Amino acid sequence: MTEKVDVLLIGGGIMSATLGTLLSELQPDWKIVVYERLSDVALESSNAWNNAGTGHAALCELNYMPEGSDGTLDPAKAISINEQFQQSRQFWSSLVEKGVLDAPKTFINSAPHMTFVRGDKDVEYLRKRYEVLKQEPLFAGIEYSEDSRVINQWAPLLMQKRRAGESFAATRVPAGTDVDFGALTHQLFDGLEARGAEVVTNREVRGLKKLADGTWNVSWRNTIGRTPGTTNAKFVFVGAGGWALKLLQRSGIPEISGYGVFPIGGQFLKTTNPSLVAQHKAKVYSQASVGAPPMSVPHLDTRVVDGEASLLFGPFATFSPKFLKNGSMLDIVTQVRPGNLGPMLRVAWDNPSLITYLLGELVKNHAKKVDSLRIFMPTAKDEDWTLIQAGQRAQVMKKDPKKGGVLQFGTEVVTAQDGSIAGLLGASPGASTAVSIMLGLLKSCFPDQIDGWQPALKELIPSYGETLNPRPAVAEETLTETAEALALTA
After folding, report:
1. 473 belongs to a structural domain
2. Cβ atoms 415, 255 nearer than 8 A
């Protein structure tokens, strides 16, 4: 017998959890079902150890504010990313107040965001970036220093035994955070189930067929017992990480034509040495290596997972043809279609530096990886750090009218023309901006309901439909209120 539902969410990650929670708040009478192919939710990209957990707010990530050919710096993208993260914070604080989420410290903690650069060119760039951002309300409180004594107070591990005469500089935003998206995802799904949604694990979606009435028949198979079945859904969201491409291709929607993905894995060095963890209470980003994708920008991060503090450094790129950590070795081949072969070949032709970067990363042994860490932390010892395998990131490749094909490092929602199915492709900033991404999806896929949902959305996210940065007083008040609600301290 085919079960009929209003909303089917494919994938047990932060995107499905966020969309499901929004819809349950806006339309509590709808029947929502979630299918996850693994034994639990949040085991892929949303898992705490499969991503850097930064809480991307563009406070320290330099790739959101590149220097123009004329030397100017445009803060627009950095501001946009920060605006999106503020929506996430507001949404989470509302859910804490409603009792949907547990105590804030179980998923979000204070961790100043820093940028650290070396060499005259990068020091000059960071100084200019600081001068631009300190004027922006969402970046209020940003600090800059080239003084080793000041930077030593901010992050002692950066300065110990650093070479004399070396030029360096750092910025610091005390209001940064560390987010455990694994814990957050679990809590959101728990809240969904408490309000009547069904979350089914060990269930793999195998096919999607559009019916004449506009609904979707979704065929699936239980991974334990191999029992097959079909569910009929009025709306389908594919939040299946790297496998979103495969499932959208199976749906047959023309909007997915021309898309492909390039998988990049990652590893991190990790330490739980108490003496080291106690000396570093920050997330410190730097410039990316030449040819490296933005997701591979090196950073030394404070992490708090399940109440335990540790430090991570990386990432170090790895390669696997799988689109998910628990994917198939055939993923990179089975994605090929006549419509995306040309764009993918063009991307390969246009990005030799990326290939060179990946090859260089793959030959690094443990000692070489600790050598990379010593650029940040001169006193790093091999024996203090162990290597952990992070998740897979599926970077978007797509058609481009001018170049034929481009590699895109952001996230992108692909939506059918009638709005009955949508899926998310891409990686960073991903989880941190999940709320903003899903708000955009609501507008695209539910045009008949979105106006009626406005009051509820405004209650959940006070800045919904507006921007904070142009309104300094409102921005300051909003940041203060969410910080208090999430028990964050600068």
Report:
1. yes
2. yes
